[in-house]
Amino acid sequence: MRLFENIAELESLTGQEIGVSGWHRLEQSQIQAFADATLDQQWIHTDPERAANGPFGTTVAHGYLSLSMLPHLAGQVYRVQGAESIINYGLDKVRFPAPAKVGSRIRDRLTLTSVTETANGRQLKVLHRIELEGSEKPACIAETVSLLRM
Predict the structure, then answer these.
(1) Which of 58, 110, 115, 116 could anchor a disulfide with 123, C-beta 3.0 to 4.6 Å?
(2) Closest alpha carbon to 18 in 1, 30, 38
(3) pTM of structure
(4) Contacts of 69 (CB under 8 A, 6+ apart)
(5) Do residues 107 and 73 touch, judged by C-beta distance below 8 A?
(6) Which residues lie across from 107 on neighbouring strands?
(7) Which of 62, 6, 72, 13 is nearest to 34 (CA)?
(8) Per residue in 80-125, pLDDT tens?
């Protein structure tokens, strides 16, 4: 966990990597729980027997499951001391270059792309690269937009 004393210290890293989370293993139980919560029961995610004969040889996590891991993984990477809140404001771009197979491990590599002063606080744009252990292609690349209030 990287602790920034203030927003200026974080802002000084604009354009740079700010850190990498720990690894998280994607288990079938998590994939199934996500399928249940989103009502997306496509067999490629939820039927290990059928998926064994599918294009990836096993079940794969929903792309949106990888995306939904951002708060958990990024929360391991940094914090700004004295921040009242960091509010999810949205996404600018999301891609899913590679499937995250069941049992694979993912982690988040964060790069601060911009900090902009607004009437309500600082708007942070962070590029997240959800890496797959042993793969050159990431499971997800997403640019998040957050509002940091001090």
Answers:
(1) 116
(2) 1
(3) 0.93
(4) 24, 106, 108, 130
(5) yes
(6) 131
(7) 62
(8) 998 988 999 999 999 999 999 999 999 999 999 999 999 999 999 9
Residue keyed to tokens 């958990």: 72
Name every residue whose Cβ is closer than 8 Å to that of residue 149 and which is 6 or more positions away in sequence. 83, 84, 85, 86, 87, 120, 121
Tokens representing 104?
A: 């694979």
